[in-house]
Amino acid sequence: MTRQKKDRDYEAGEESTLSTATVATFVEKEEVLSSKVSSCPEGGLRAWLTILGVFLIQFTTFGYTNAHGVYNDYYVREYLQKTSSSSQIAWIGSTQLFLVMSVGVVSGRAFDAGHFYALMIGGALLFEFCLFMISITQPEHFYQVFLAQGVGLGIAVGVMYIPAIGIISHYFQRNRALAIGLGTSGSAVGGAIHPIMLNSWFHGSVGFHNGVRASAGLTGGLMVIGILLMKPRYPKDKPPTKSMFTEFWGFLKDIPYVFMILGTMLTLAGIYYPIFFIQLSSIKNGITPHLAFYTIVVLNGASAVGRIIPNLLVYRYGPYNIVVPSVYITALLIFCSLAINNAPGTMVFTVLYGFFSGSYVSVMPAMIGSMAAHDSEIGARMGVCFTFTGIGGLIGTPVAGALLSKSFVWWRPVVFAGLCVTTGATCFATARFLKARHLQTQRL
User: Fold this and answer.
1) The whole model's pTM is what?
2) Domains in the chain, ordered, with CATH?
3) Cβ neighbours for 144, distance < 8 A, ≥ 6 positions apart
4) What are the CA-CA distances from residue 369 to residues 25, 168, 177 (Å)?
């Protein structure tokens, strides 16, 4: 369809134009669909300062959760070794991940309703409070760590996650996928830098408790700067807000959207297994602790690259055409980890896994947004999707930890995680097929 034909259809009020715009909500919009809604600047000082703010928030929040492998290794081998199994300790990270995702059903609607600053400031305060609570926990007291890190920190990050991504839609339409990639790369960079500091502090002269306090001071300062840099641009005329129940069931009648949700849930059940366990598995495979400490750093560094480069291709090929192969390759890499037993193989795995898993994570918001009928429901769509996605994160890591057992039988969690991610990729391929058949386009 030519641009001239699009213009004529829109002026005539035809629904076909709106259908095309629906597909391109996140990545393909090239023009303003209504004079009543302010156009996206697609750049400028304020827009790029907002992206910098998103980067800093992602660095300090989701980037901190990406460094959970350091905590997991420390808890399993030292801090909670006597009273808790690997499976029990895995519930800390999985509960945290579940809440990061599931809280989005509330924070997404609140963001759409205009409460951006309340969410960001409240989440930041809770985040700092929970870090200081972790710093006063006692060894072998599992419940203290679980409540502060698993529950409290998960809610704090979940409150901020969707608003910090959704605000990008206020400034970018045509280049939105690239802007999301740049902003969310902060979580990968944080996942590379936080482990270096945490490992150095936990296993050095600073110690665990003072190390957590030091990280709280660093993240608190960066969050203040990030929030000050971001400024939302809500449209003057927003569509009327539907009730949560009506909106929820309306979304679930969209069959491709349902398959996409199932795919994200299954993928998350397996994709975080290497991220949480790679440092521990490296040490158990005989790699020196000093080198193993850098596996998470390398993985997240590669993930930062993976969150930017594929987004350059989203506008041209569509989010599904990037996500589907990336997730299949990620699943293949999980299975390949069974053959790794030396330092070179470990490093090659961490680079490849970081890149392709990072590609999925960064393009996922664009994939969800492509299902939205208009920008005002993007936050709600993400919230509903992340709620179900969090279930995968809740059960995936503990199941992997239970399969691993105290005997460290690595093939069992690898097979479980690999099958979960493979099935998730198949669900994405199914959602893409159904949507492409309905819209009669392969650019999805």
Assistant:
1) 0.74
2) 40-439 (1.20.1250.20)
3) 133, 137, 138
4) 6, 12, 10
